[in-house]
C-alpha cells in the first residue's frame, strides 16, 4: 500500500509575500513595485499611495485607526493558552506560543477593547496576524465571546476586524468549538437588538470565515482581500478545475453577494461610524454629519 507509505512533507508556513521590511526606511509595494518611504506608508494607514494596495495592519494600529483619538481600554490582555493537548508538530506548540508572545508582545492573536467610534461607545476585537497566523484557538474564542458579552451588558455594538488563517490546529477540536461559542454569543447580541459589524481583511479564511466573519449585520471587506474557507490552491487540487479570475477576492465575493460592501481602509472609520449610527438609530452628529445641502 504505497499510499500509506507516502512520506508527508510538512506544510510550508505561510510567508508574507509582501516584501515589507518593518525596520527599513523603504518598503516596496508588492502590487505596483513602487518604493515607498516607510513613514509615508504609515501616515497613509499602510495603504500604497500609488495603487491603493492594502498592506497588512497589526491589531494596535487597527484599533488606533478606528477609535477616537486612538484611545481604548483593552480587555483580558493576560489570557493565554495552556497548550491543553501538549501538541508538538515540527516543534512544540508551547515554544511557538512563547516565540509569538516575544515577537508581538501579545499573549494571543486578538486584542479586544472598548472605546468610542465617532462618539459611539463600541466594543472592537482586532485580530493579530503575526501571532501564529491570527489563528483562532481557545483564547481567541474566549476573548471575542467575552467582548460580545460585555457589549450586551453595556448595550454597545460590536465590531470584529478579522485577519486569520482559521482555527488553530495545535488546539485540535477545542479550537473548532470556538466557532460555535462565538456564533452563540453573536446570537445573544442579536436578540438583545445590538448590531454587529464584521470587517474582513486580507486574509480571512478557514473557521473564522465559517463562523463570525460572515455573521455580521453588515459584512464589510477591504479591497482585494483573500476571503474564503479553503484556499484557492486546495480547491483547485480537489475539484481539478481552473478557478475563475479573482476567485475569493473581495470584489468577486461582492459580485456574488457573499459580502455587503468593500471599503477602502482610509474610509473605514467613517463607513463603520455611519453604519453604526443607522443600526443603533443615533442621529448623525459631530464632524461626520453630512453638510447642509441647499436645494
Ligand atoms: Zn502599490
Radius of gyration (CA) equals: 20 Å
Bound molecules: zinc ion
Proportion in β-strands: 15-25%
Number of strands: 9
Q: What's the oligomerization state?
A: single chain
How helix-rich are the residues, as a percent range? 25-40%
Q: Determine the structural class based on helices, strands and strand pairing.
A: alpha/beta
Cα distance, first to last residue?
A: 79 Å
Element string (H = helix, E = strand): HEEHHEHEEHEHEHEHHEH
> How does the overall form come out from the CA principal axes?
globular
What is the count of helical runs?
Answer: 10
| Strand adjacency order, main sheet | 3-4-5-6-7-8-9
- What profile does the largest beta sheet have? 7 strands, mixed
State mean pLDDT (0 to 100 scale). Answer: 92
Low-pLDDT parts are none
Task: Describe what you observe in this structure.
With 295 residues, the chain is of the alpha/beta class. The protein is 34% helix and 16% strand. It has 10 helices and 9 strands. It has helices at 2-5, 38-43, 59-66, 93-104, 138-154, 172-191, 206-209, 232-239, 250-255, 265-280, and strands at 26-28, 35-37, 73-75, 110-117, 120-127, 158-164, 196-204, 218-221, 261-262. It has a 7-stranded mixed beta sheet with strand order 3-4-5-6-7-8-9, with helices on both faces. It has a two-stranded antiparallel sheet with strand order 1-2. The longest helix is centred in the middle third of the chain and has 20 residues, at 172-191.
